[in-house]
Amino acid sequence: MDGLLPVDKPKGISSHDVVDKVRQVLRIKKVGHAGTLDPAATGLLLICVGRATKLTLFLQNLDKTYQGEMIFGVTTSSLDEEGEVVEEKNASSLSKEKVEELFSRFRGEIIQTPPMFSAVHYQGKRLYELARKKQIVERAPRRVQIYELKLLRFTPLEGPNRKVLQGLKFSSNLLTGLTLNSHPQAEFRVRCSKGTYIRSLCADIGKASDFGAYQASLRRISIGPFNLKQAKKFEELDKGLEEENIYSLKDALPHLPLVTVKAGAEKIVKWGGSLYLSHLDNLPPGLEKGDRVRICSQEGQLLAVAVSLQEETHFCRDKIGFKYLRVLA
Prior knowledge:
The protein is 15% helix and 32% strand. With 329 residues, it is of the alpha+beta class. The longest helix has 12 residues, at 15-26. The protein starts with a strand and ends with a strand.
């Protein structure tokens, strides 16, 4: 069974736990995922089964959309609800208009520093391994894109609100009496590029507000063309999986233009041979040089992922058409 399985991951388990569950249900070792979700986060996780594990590179780069909640006036060590409270301020003066203005500053290309509690490698170790030992190291900033950042709801929460801090851990130098402060909540939706840390985004917005903030909840609702409506509930995996639950290799990359080869040309792709116009049954309209494409057989079998070396409007018969990135045949 080869293909893509979208799963709705619940809170409290790791992405690897979902992979292990699918391995157990399908009794197959070759299973992976196309982009981690933190244990505290929920939502869409793309699980690659069998030969689909060869496609993870082409799924990891897709844009992601999240819906979440951030709380102002509180800063935590992990930048989310899993960490220890390290600072608290009264944010009662924060308004919806101010949050809207703050959000506008963080749209477009921004520079982020990966949080210490992350899976980024540092000298052979994961950052979260160092963070658990209370070690803080220099991290290289990275450029990411925030395509959309929308405020869905703002709740001022005037006066005491202990529910906001319920379950959080306080560092020893903070008094729990400080929970009488006001902690406004902001529900948001964000669409961003690969490698964006929403925890860091919330913390950076909080810093810009002068009150601090942490990510209180996060749910991934889409990855490229895939969304939660297509996902199998994690709790339902024990009931088993049918073939209709898993997208075929061809349908696992719907965002890539489709090139179909003529009958008999499958062997050329399988052997990594050069494809010319005479081998093709169709060319996608508007194909540009440098575009990634799916190369499929007449029967709809995904043979390879490739880069177009020519554009559709000037596709020459005597020039090679594509450069292979991954051959699956």
